[in-house]
Amino acid sequence: MRLLAFVLAFLLALTGCSGLPPQKAPVRAAGVPGFPITVTDARGRTLTLSAPPQRIVSLAPSNTELLFDLGLGERIVGVTTACDYPPEAKQKPQIGGAYNLSVERVLGPGPDLVVAFGSINQKPIAQLERASVPVLTLDARTVSEVYEAIRLLGRATGTAARAEAIVQRMQQRMAAIETTVRDARPKPGVLIVYSVNPIYTTGPGSFIDELVRIAGGVNVVTESLPQNIVTPERGVSLAPDVILCDPELVSRLKQIPGWSVLPAIRNNRFFHVSPRATLVRPTPRLVDGVEELARYLHPERFRSSQSR
Fold first, then answer.
1. CATH homologous superfamily of domain 182-307?
2. Which of 7, 31, 139, 204 has the smallest C-beta neighbourhood within 10 Å, fewest atoms?
3. Span 219-246, pLDDT tens digits
4. Cα–Cα nearest to 98, from 69, 75, 134, 124
5. Which pTM was predicted?
């Protein structure tokens, strides 16, 4: 499921494996402008690279997307089984799932950089560092941190100019969306649902909570909940206007006892991002997801902006 993919791509435990290419010595470029370079990653650890990495292993779907966005697809020599975007990512050699990847398979192709995600890769990060493998950890949890993660990866891979251009386009588009819906009224109440039985949601201060706000909505979950679980009774009291979920959850949500009174269910207001967008992975596709949500919540604002 696309929406569950990041709660379970922060929180994903997919398995799978396929053959990796034979181990090769890392390719080193001499005299590259800007290198050697020392960067500080999301853990506050410094990493010095003598040249742009040529054999990169990605330990998370969002990292893989960012590498492709930076034009580094040809340098990727290993990905997880969850790395499914862009489509070319699925053709890359696989090292296992997010929680059960094989460190031996990571080491197999002789990477000169491993790009990890701190929230899900803590154990392999420690193992790889003990093996003296260069590890760069990203861990974006806010929109501003997404921008900084892209810049960091750009600096570490010798693609800083391209990274900055991506960030600037994202910032411009995000600002335009926010401006378009800023004064829109009313702001629909949105309930984010990742799973049913239990009903798993996200409260204030979360990554997707920020995106809902930018899109001109209001997260109806306004306080932290134990384990982020909403009881059916609590869901009724939240009375969301819109439910943000994966398509396959809709029929199950409609069957929850007492939920037929919810405005979102009475009016059949369920929002799902398209395959080209995301609201859960910290990549440039976030902007597409936010725009799709904003257009769903405030279609009149976008019709008027197109007519001007």
1. Nitrogenase molybdenum iron protein domain (3.40.50.1980)
2. 31
3. 999 998 889 999 999 999 999 999 999 9
4. 124
5. 0.87
